[in-house]
Amino acid sequence: MGWEMKVGQQSLWSSVMKDKYGRGRFEQGNIIAKPTDSFIWKGIVAAWDRISQLEAWSVGDGHSILAWQDRWLGNDVVLEQFTDALPDEMQHWSVADMIGGSGNWKAQVL
Question: What is the pLDDT along the chain (110 residues), one digit of tens a residue?
């Protein structure tokens, strides 16, 4: 159930737990457990860091990953690593936008 919540799957149980205990901070990863919360929620909170460590991206065709804004290369957003401004038209590129027809990186745009 914790994994379902982490990756955004919407099963009935994960939706109920997230809505009841997530307290509006779920998307930021700041989940907490209060003494009165269920033991299941407390277990998810206790395991959350471990779940996050095991998380990995499946790039696939690259269309669903924002190359500069998602945390798909480690723990940081790639855009935050740049000191120079990235052109506006490139800021919303997906990984697929950077790969040519033969599956190689488009070196001329990188």
Answer: 676 776 666 788 878 888 888 766 665 567 888 999 999 989 988 888 887 777 777 888 889 888 888 878 877 777 777 767 778 888 889 999 999 888 888 888 77
Model confidence, pTM: 0.54
CB 97 within 8 A of CB 67: yes
Looking at the fold, whether 9 and 37 belong to one and the same domain comes out as yes
**By CB neighbour count within 10 A (0-12 exposed, 13-18 middle, 19+ buried), where does 97 fall?**
middle
Domain hosting residue 69, numbered range? 59-110
The number of folded domains in the chain is 2
